[in-house]
Every structure is written in structure tokens, then in C-alpha cells.
Amino acid sequence: MKRKSYSQSLADLKSRGIRLTPQRQVILQYLKETEAHPTAEQVYQKIGEQFPGISLATVYNTLNMLKELGVIRELSYGDVSSRYDGNDSEHAHLVCEHCGQVLDIATPPEEAVITQNIQQAGFTVSSYRLEYYGTCGSCVQSTPYQKDHAS
Asked: Is residue 136 a known part of a binding site?
């Protein structure tokens, strides 16, 4: 599935009868047009530039609503703040264990993820989340230990 654009997502939500205030629209647009995976606080700061009176509660409520409607994804990483992903297509993530950066990458073929063992167990997969943890290129370059042991 290809990533839906802001205008496609907006049209989909309108066709489903969802009320879209200007604040909801700008939050949706920001998430659909960024490659970043911002926290709710980062969304609040960014949207606050356009809507100075917006509350953090409105941002959280909108993010939750968009997540429940399947338009965005929430990425939880234990005790760290959740991040939000406007890319609604199937894809995997690279997560840097040093700086926390999250990057999208193409998902391996379904056969590599949904193995024969899963099928033999009689399990039907409805969705999955694939993440790789390690060190991003910027952290490798800036960390002397990593440079010495990168090979």
C-alpha cells in the first residue's frame, strides 16, 4: 500500500463524516507531510506556531482520534514519549539507540516477515510492526567508540 497524502486522508475522513476543525486539519497535514516521527509535544510546538491558542490537550485528543481512525500510527518505545507517524503504508523503522531518531525504511517482502512457522501455528497476521535498533550514521560519526568498533 502506498502512503496516503494529506489531501487523500482529508477526503477519506470527510467521507466518513469526521468533523475536521482547522486545528485538526493542520495537525493531520503536518504529520502527513513530514518524514519525522514527532512526539505530541513536538507536534504541539510546531502547530502552536500557526495556532498560538491551541492546547496540548487538543493536540493529544486529535492525535488519539487520528490514530483510532487509522490515519496515523502511534509508535511507543517503553517509558519514552510516544511518537506519531503520518505514513500509513506498511513500512519498517530504524531506531537509533543513541539519539532516538526514527527513520522509515521499506518493509521486507511479506514472506520474510510472515514465516512458514507462523502459518503452521495456525496464526493469521492482521498487521505487524518491524523495527531495527542500532546506531544512526550521525551517531556513528560522532562517537569515537563506534568508529573504532564499526567493522
From this structure: yes
Q: Is 110 labeled as ligand-binding?
A: no
Domain that holds residue 25: 1-88
Total domains in the chain come to 2
From CA 88, how far away is CA 51, in angstroms rounded?
25
Q: What's 83's domain CATH number? A: 1.10.10.10
Helix/strand/coil for 76: strand
Question: Which residues have C-beta within 8 Å of that of residue 59, sequence separation ≥ 6?
Answer: 27, 40, 43, 44, 47
Q: pTM of the predicted model, to two decimals?
A: 0.81
**CB distance 40 to 81 below 8 Å:** yes
- For residue 79, give the DSSP letter: T
The answer to whether residues 77 and 146 belong to one domain is no
Q: Residue 1: its pLDDT value, please?
A: 59
Strands 102-105 and 73-77: unpaired
Whether 73 shows a pLDDT value over 70: the answer reads yes
Q: Is 35 annotated as a binding residue?
A: no
For the stretch 111-131, pLDDT in tens is 778 888 888 899 988 878 889
96 marked ligand binding residue: yes
- 33 labelled binding-site residue: no
